[in-house]
């Protein structure tokens, strides 16, 4: 039976997910290839479908579509994302990535014949690919070495080797991989419908299966709030990479044991607990440098920057570069300030992270993407520029893209749960984009792949809209792109038309139900101001000398905005924004702050409290100074990769 290339599989999945016909031009734009190439791919797809007695319908000027039952669609998608999805013909780019990973995970030199046999291509093809591998690896500070009669290997520092491993593994992920991994983590007792294939054919593969099983054992519901799915992926990848490298005697630093091991275990530090389970299984020592590698790309707890000033400078720089009055939008400043405060204050921060928005944003708003990158390099302190990558820029871009969407509040009668990457910029953009186009919808909740099933069960929506495939829910589902395309909007619109036929329209829909406050708008405004000032004064006394003097103004604004969020039921998402370690370390202060909010009739969540602790000094200057040299080396390497 014939096999499909990875792009052909993605095109076929796109057609299966679409409720309407799709043109070759639309496919060409999405996959960044010519229309002619798409036509060749579709010819192969038709032959593959013919073997399964399935017809792909086509009509000039209309496009391509399927006429299948939902059961047939699911069965076909399951076949595509099963074993066959990963046993496909690899194009040259995919082979280069795979060869690079093979060399990095190999304990000994690797021959061209062994590589050719594993990929089912000729030795001459592999020799040509190795020239490309040499160019690719050099960009990341690694050198391809060769010895006649022996084979090939990659040479470079361990930090650079692991950075490239992490990068390649993250960039090989698809939304189907994410769903399978998160399904295993959130529901470990249910038998897996499909295997996890990341790193298949590498020593990493078996290690990662164990890492996922051990992670599932640790993730109690209350712990889940500490991470989002991108952070969970990064931590599991790093534990598996560290384990795989130590098994071939490649350590990232010294062989000094971690002295804080028992304290971290007592505090239920997830990276430490996972490292303990996996390393003990393989009989590996718990090393300090390996723990620091697994925890974060931050080698030192930086001084918290003035995020308000950073936000103002970013908006000003991007406004001038693009000649757009972003600086006249106060909501943009509020959202960007909140985003950077949380982002830069996170305990676990990774340069490589899964971000489904990157390609869409680059394609839809290349000028905005370029302007943000330029502004970040100009505005961010030199010690933090290693954070600037495509993912970091994309999340900032989401806040600016909201500016391009017109504010429009419409009646809402079809209730939707939206499953995406959660965050203020993401949800604001998606909500405005959908509600601008469709007048009879209400997004009752945003969820991530981690809590999707629970949110669907709680809200009982009319429709689930998701960037991930979700099985086993008793509710209609429309799968969409990370940023909804015109076709996605039309599919949702078509569903709402059918669903709303026999319904009475809702009286009105407002994003925040201010009537619950029991006051007129001017009274509600007064309440926010008064409570904000009371909370600010109370928090200043509780934080005492620990409040950072250089960002007191930003702290004042943060407290007022926080009170506004609480009153109008728009608190930070719990998932990924709770640092239980920090709250536990300062538990007495934490309890006192909770009491202050309670006395003022404000129900604050742990994500908001975590954000408050970003304004507090946590380490002494001596501790920060001790790790300064490590940070400089990390920043220098990241700057090299960016350039």
TrEMBL record:
InterPro entries: BglG_antiterminators, HTH_11, PRD, PRD_sf, PTS_EIIB-like_sf, PTS_EIIB_2, WH-like_DNA-bd_sf, WH_DNA-bd_sf. Residues 414-504 form the PTS EIIB type-2 domain. Residues 620-643 are annotated as: Disordered. Residues 302-410 form the PRD domain. SUPFAM superfamilies: PTS system IIB component-like, PTS-regulatory domain, PRD, Winged helix' DNA-binding domain. Pfam families: HTH_11 (PF08279), PRD (PF00874). Residues 620-635 have a biased composition (Basic and acidic residues). GO terms for molecular function: protein-N(PI)-phosphohistidine-sugar phosphotransferase activity. One of its GO terms (biological process) is phosphoenolpyruvate-dependent sugar phosphotransferase system. Keywords: Repeat, Transcription, Transcription regulation, Transferase. This is Transcriptional antiterminator. It comes from Enterococcus florum. The lineage of its organism: Bacteria, Bacillati, Bacillota, Bacilli, Lactobacillales.
């Amino acid at each position: 039976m014939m096999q499909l290339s990875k792009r052909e599989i993605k095109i076929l999945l796109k057609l299966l997910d679409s409720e309407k016909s799709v043109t070759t031009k639309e496919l060409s734009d999405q996959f960044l290839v010519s229309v002619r190439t798409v036509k060749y791919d579709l010819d192969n797809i038709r032959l593959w479908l013919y073997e399964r007695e399935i017809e792909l319908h086509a009509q000039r000027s209309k496009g391509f579509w399927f006429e299948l039952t939902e059961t047939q669609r699911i069965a076909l998608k399951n076949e595509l994302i099963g074993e066959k999805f990963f046993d496909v013909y690899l194009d040259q780019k995919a082979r280069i990535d795979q060869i690079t990973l093979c060399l990095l995970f190999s304990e000994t030199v690797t021959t061209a014949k062994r590589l050719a046999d594993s990929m089912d291509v000729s030795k001459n093809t592999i020799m040509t690919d190795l020239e490309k591998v040499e160019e690719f690896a050099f960009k990341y500070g690694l050198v391809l070495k060769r010895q006649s009669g022996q084979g090939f290997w990659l040479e470079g520092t361990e930090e650079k080797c692991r950075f490239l491993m992490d990068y390649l593994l993250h960039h090989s992920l698809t939304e189907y991989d994410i769903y399978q991994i998160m399904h295993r983590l959130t529901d470990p007792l249910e038998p897996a419908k499909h295997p996890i294939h990341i790193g298949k054919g590498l020593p990493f593969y078996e290690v990662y299966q164990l890492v996922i099983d051990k992670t599932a054992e640790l993730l109690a519901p209350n712990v889940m709030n500490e991470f989002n799915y991108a952070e969970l992926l990064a931590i599991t990848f790093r534990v598996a990479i560290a384990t795989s490298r130590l098994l071939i005697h490649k350590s990232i630093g010294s062989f000094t044991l971690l002295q804080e091991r028992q304290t971290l275990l007592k505090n239920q530090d997830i990276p430490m607990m996972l490292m303990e389970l996996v390393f003990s299984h393989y009989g590996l020592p718990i090393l300090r440098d390996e723990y620091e590698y697994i925890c974060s790309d931050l080698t030192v707890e930086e001084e918290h920057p003035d995020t308000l000033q950073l936000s103002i400078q970013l908006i000003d720089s991007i406004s001038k570069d693009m000649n757009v009055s972003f600086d006249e939008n106060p909501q943009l400043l509020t959202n960007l300030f909140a985003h950077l405060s949380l982002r830069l204050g996170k305990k676990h921060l990774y340069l490589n992270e899964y971000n489904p928005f990157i390609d869409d944003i680059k394609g839809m708003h290349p000028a905005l993407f370029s302007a943000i990158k330029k502004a970040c390099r100009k505005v961010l302190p030199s010690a933090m520029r290693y954070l600037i990558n495509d993912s970091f820029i994309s999340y900032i871009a989401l806040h600016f893209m909201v500016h391009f969407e017109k504010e429009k509040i419409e009646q809402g009668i079809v209730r939707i749960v939206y499953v995406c990457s959660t965050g203020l910029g993401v949800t604001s953009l998606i909500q405005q984009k959908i509600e601008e186009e469709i007048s009879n919808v209400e997004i009752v909740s945003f969820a991530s792949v981690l809590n999707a099933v629970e949110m669907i069960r709680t809200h009982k929506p009319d429709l689930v809209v998701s960037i991930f495939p979700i099985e086993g829910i008793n509710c209609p589902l429309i799968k969409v792109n990370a940023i909804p395309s015109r076709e996605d909007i039309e599919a949702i619109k078509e569903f709402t038309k059918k669903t709303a036929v026999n319904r009475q329209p809702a009286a009105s829909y407002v994003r925040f139900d201010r009537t619950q406050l029991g006051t007129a708008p001017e009274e509600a405004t007064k309440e926010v101001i008064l409570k904000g000032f009371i909370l600010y004064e109370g928090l200043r006394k509780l934080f005492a000398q620990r409040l950072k003097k250089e960002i007191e103004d930003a702290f004042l604004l943060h407290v007022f905005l926080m009170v506004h969020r609480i009153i109008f039921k728009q608190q930070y998402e719990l998932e990924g924004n709770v640092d239980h370690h920090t709250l536990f370390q300062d538990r007495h202060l934490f309890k006192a702050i909770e009491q202050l909010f309670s006395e003022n009739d404000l129900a604050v969540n742990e994500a908001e409290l975590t954000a408050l602790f970003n304004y507090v000094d946590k380490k002494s200057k001596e501790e920060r100074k001790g790790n300064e040299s490590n940070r400089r080396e990390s920043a220098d390497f990241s700057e090299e990769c960016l350039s």
